[in-house]
Specification:
By secondary structure, this protein is an alpha/beta fold. It has twelve helices and twelve strands. The longest helix has 13 residues, at 47-59. The structure holds S-adenosylmethionine and iron/sulfur cluster (SF4).
Length: 333
């Protein structure tokens, strides 16, 4: 039945990330090729199936649920799913319901998200330069994201900006971005590029180790490690001069696996026990095989029993192959 999820290394799984769609209105260079082929609709879980799946995980001890994608806010009727899932916040079973978004649709949805009990958002933004934003996202419009951020702030949502650090592309904008975020009351988290999926570019050209970035920032700012945790893999420092928080997600330079409490489900219902490994379990089959959740619970338990100790990401200069072949937009960020 719905027993808690404890993996073979004694880590309790309490955080679920669900990709609600593989589609997106952007084509970020490190995430997707420009001419992506998306999944046929029948393969993607319906909103009802997504609700059933998320609720089963909540029954099994998930306290924090993050919807991601692709771009979650481009999925048709996504707000009906979010509104339905908010019942688990009302019941107290779920501590947090949140999303990771590119911000393009936020101006439209911010108020409704707040009404549904969403308190915090992760918004991905790699630059504040409109032309560069277009180059990185290919199809994005920085002005719309800025409008979305304003709407989210007015709706009372806390914001964390996620910035992928890209060598030679936005590395000189990291400090200005940090100042801007902190002036606006946003946290900033820097992310190293991860070798996920075939893209049109060479990843070894994009990779910028955050250990180097941190050392550079520390030349001008006082950074103090703080135990602040959001349930995710970021490690935070407080920046004395700005009074804000700066996070680092360093899958490549630092092993962030030992405290891993997360699993991910794709929009087709594949459960990935680790972002950096290919092993997965087909929960869609269990969902569609029966109306009762027993098969689903069994499939989840069996999979958690195989959760690996850690990932083996490596950006390999010789083979230039991604470590895992699926894109981030499939597993969700
Ligand atoms: N579309 C939403 C967004 O952009 O926030 C949610 C999905 S996106 C895949 C989630 C996060 O993954 C984003 O912050 C994005 O920058 C990051 N991301 C995508 N591909 C990545 C990669 N190869 N390495 C590191 N981060 C990546
Ligand atoms: Fe879309 Fe997010 Fe991937 Fe950019 S990072 S292409 S916004 S899914």
């Amino acid at each position: 039945m719905s027993q808690p999820m404890i993996d073979p290394f004694g880590r309790e799984v309490s955080y679920l990330r669900v990709s609600v769609t593989d589609r997106c209105d952007f084509r970020c260079v490190y995430c997707m090729a420009e001419d992506m082929t998306f999944l046929p609709k029948r393969e993607v879980l319906t909103l009802e199936e997504l609700d059933r799946l998320c609720s089963a995980f909540v029954d099994k001890g998930v306290r924090k649920l993050r919807l991601t994608g692709g771009e979650p806010l481009v999925r048709k009727n996504i707000m009906s799913l979010i509104r339905n899932l908010s019942r688990h916040l009302d019941s107290g079973k779920l501590e947090e319901l949140t999303i990771t978004t590119n911000g393009s649709q936020l101006a439209r949805f911010a108020d409704e998200l707040a009404e549904c009990g969403v308190r915090r958002l992760n918004v991905s933004m790699d630059t504040m330069d409109a032309a560069k934003f277009k180059t990185i996202t290919r199809w994005g419009d920085l002005g719309k994201v800025m409008d979305g951020l304003r709407a989210a702030t007015e709706a009372g949502l806390s914001i964390k900006i996620n910035m992928v650090a890209l060598k030679g592309v936005n590395e000189h904008e990291i400090v200005p971005m940090m100042r801007w975020c902190h002036d606006n009351g946003y946290d900033l988290t820097l992310i190293e590029t991860m070798p996920l999926g075939e893209i049109d570019e060479d990843r070894t050209d994009q990779y910028l180790p955050l250990s180097l970035v941190r050392a550079r920032i520390a030349e001008d700012f006082t950074l103090t490690d703080i135990p602040y945790k959001t349930g995710g893999p970021a490690r935070y420092v407080e920046v004395k001069e700005t009074g804000g928080r700066l996070g680092f997600i360093t899958p490549m330079t630092h092993n962030f696996c030992e405290s891993c409490n997360r699993v991910r489900v794709t929009c087709t219902g594949m459960l990935y026990m680790c972002l950096g490994q290919d092993d997965s379990a087909d929960l869609r089959a269990a969902l569609r095989a029966s109306e009762s959740n027993d098969l689903l619970y069994d499939a989840i338990d069996e999979a958690i029993g195989r959760k690996p100790k850690g990932h083996d990401f490596i950006i390999d200069r010789r083979t230039r192959q991604p470590a895992v072949s699926r894109h981030m937009s499939v597993t969700g960020g």
